[in-house]
Amino acid sequence: MALSPALPTIVPAQRSDARAFAAYLVEHMAESGRQGVPHFAVTTSLVAEEVEQSALDRWSRALSEPLWGRAWLLRVSAPRARIIGHIELRGGRVPSENHRAVVAMGILGPCTGQGHGRRLLETAIAWARDEAGLSYLDLGVFSNNERARRLYARMGFIPVGTREDAFRVDGVTLDDIQMTLALRPPGQRTTPAR
């Protein structure tokens, strides 16, 4: 009897993961708008060292600080250990936004369509609601990215507006749909984790 491949694991990102995360993100961004993949990023090229330093900076901040970040990594162990996806929550620029976070996520093309996006979202949503005490999660998704839009809608995100002609990438005009998920009733006070 053949063994089925192990389900990729989701683990909280640690500072020691920043270099591998940067390498993965550079690979992932290069897929945007290529070989039939819809555009999902405003750039297709990143500098790994800058991505690594930026992640280290965000992941080191307390939730009470502006521009904090918390990430979870989707990892496989075979045929070689590597990151194949991620989700990150990022805090706002000012303390008065501390009740919200912005969602950024991605999965390498060959690994999409297998339920990993839903698993990543479930992990981040549960943490945001139950541990961080956040009230809302926000995200932007390009109008051409139907698969991502459907996933976000299934997870409870609702469209709250569209920025038409928000970005022009590789000669393609992209509308940016803003979506929000309410984690608790409006006005309910919470005490976010620190």
From TrEMBL:
<dbReference type="Pfam" id="PF00583">
    <property type="entry name" value="Acetyltransf_1"/>
</dbReference>
<dbReference type="InterPro" id="IPR016181">
    <property type="entry name" value="Acyl_CoA_acyltransferase"/>
</dbReference>
<dbReference type="InterPro" id="IPR000182">
    <property type="entry name" value="GNAT_dom"/>
</dbReference>
<dbReference type="GO" id="GO:0016747">
    <property type="term" value="F:acyltransferase activity, transferring groups other than amino-acyl groups"/>
</dbReference>
<dbReference type="InterPro" id="IPR050276">
    <property type="entry name" value="MshD_Acetyltransferase"/>
</dbReference>
<feature type="domain" description="N-acetyltransferase">
    <location>
        <begin position="24"/>
        <end position="184"/>
    </location>
</feature>
<protein>
    <recommendedName>
        <fullName>N-acetyltransferase domain-containing protein</fullName>
    </recommendedName>
</protein>
